[in-house]
Amino acid sequence: MSYSIEEVARALGARAFGATGITVDGVAEPADAGPGDLALAMKPDYADGLAQGRARAAVVWDGADWQAMGLEAALVVPRPRYVMSGLTRLLDPGQGWGGGIHPSAVVDPGAELAPDVSVGPLAVICAGARIGAGSVIGPQCFVGTDAVLGEGTFLREGVRIGARVRIGARFIAQPGAVVGGDGFSYVTPETSAVEQGRATLGDIEGTDAQSWARIHSLGGVTIGDDVELGTNCTIDRGTIRDTHVGDGTKIDNLVMIGHNVIIGRDCLLCGLVGIAGSTRIGNNVVLAGKTGVSDNIFIGDNVITGGGTIVLSNIPAGRMMLGYPAMRMETTVEVFKGFRRLKRLFDDVAGLKKTVTDLSQKR
Q1: pLDDT band for position 348 (50/70/90)?
Q2: Does 82 have pLDDT greater than 90?
Q3: Contacts 24+ apart (CB under 8 A), 107-111
Q4: Number of domains in the chain
Q5: What CATH number has the domain bearing residue 65?
Q6: pLDDT for 17-71, tens place per residue?
Q7: Rounded to an integer, what distance in angstroms lies between the CA atom of residue 117 and that of residue 155?
Q8: Distance between CA atoms of 176 and 179, rounded to whole angstroms?
Q9: Which of 102, 216, 244, 259 is the catalytic position?
Q10: Which structural domain range is residue 58 located in?
């Protein structure tokens, strides 16, 4: 589909200038833009690229001299990066899947699908599953027994939703996401070496090898409205109570959320984050890539961790954390600076020792 600059401006709440009847059917970086693209020159740094491309229209920063850049039309927005949300939504061509229920899909007669639900090739929907209006179940997806998916759900290829999982409205899951696998819970007949080591923080002595007995997961997973899951992320079901993800939380690729975890509203969990079982995370928390969180701890509202942080203890609300173990970010930065000075410090100490030795010998 193509849209005029005027239509795009109306959809985004932007100001349009110049030949607003020009139509665009895609977006591109300035140097790569063709005549049918809307160039994204949202900062002065990108202005030079317009001369290399062939865009007739662009999104520009407030106060930009768009005519001097050779443009015929321009869109001006107060917060350029935020406009990317509406602009990409408007111009997203989708996955190209057809509507209706594909003949190869397996839908149990006991499942309840709203009349306009689409189900792709080779998908499986089990008995008792309920899927809300406007939902799209992609190719090779699985929706388990008695699972509930709210209206506007969108499952990309190969998503797996386990039995008795409950998900709110406008849920999006990228390919390979799995919700409702069993938790990683095992126990030994007697106190294990792991339990002893955790209690004493010392070496293990006198413990016989034991086999692990499985603890089954009787709980489910409850996910709120407007939650998104990235490619190949996993959320385990709870042991007794449900694992819970709050409204508006966004979860990146390859994130692992353990059993019984509770995550609040509007959190961002970036790629390769791992959260161990029974951890509680507050609202508006941001865990940067490769953050690891130990089990049975609490992270307060508005906490932010830097990449690669390892959280081993509770974090109060509002803290910026970094490092292994996690410390306040400014403290960790000072520690890193100290590490960089160690070689110089050792050299200085060696020099002082040599001076003292020389003085002693002279006496």
Answers
A1: confident
A2: no
A3: 111/143
A4: 1
A5: 3.40.1390.10
A6: 999 999 999 999 999 999 999 999 998 988 889 999 999 999 999 899 999 999 9
A7: 12
A8: 10
A9: 259
A10: 3-91
Query: What is the per-residue burial (b if ≥16 Cβ within 10 Å, else e) of 192-207?
Result: bbeeeeeeeeeeeeee
Quote the CA–CA distance of 38 and 48 in Å, as a whole number.
16
In a domain, 81, yes or no: yes
Residue 216 is classified by DSSP as P
Residues in Cβ contact with 24 at an 8 Å cutoff, skipping those fewer than 6 apart? 2, 3, 5, 8, 36, 37, 38, 57, 91
**Given this model, what pLDDT does residue 173 score?**
98
pLDDT of the residue at 205? 74
Q: For residues 119-145, give the mean pLDDT.
A: 98
Under DSSP, the state recorded for 45 is G
Is residue 288 a part of any domain in this protein? Answer: no
Concerning whether 259 is annotated as a catalytic residue, the answer is yes
Query: Per residue in 137-156, is it b (16+ CB within 10 Å) or e — as a string?
Result: bbbbbbbbbbbbbbbbbbbb
Residues 6+ apart with CB under 8 A from 246: 224, 227, 263, 264, 265, 266, 267, 283
Instruction: Specify the pLDDT at position 193.
Output: 83
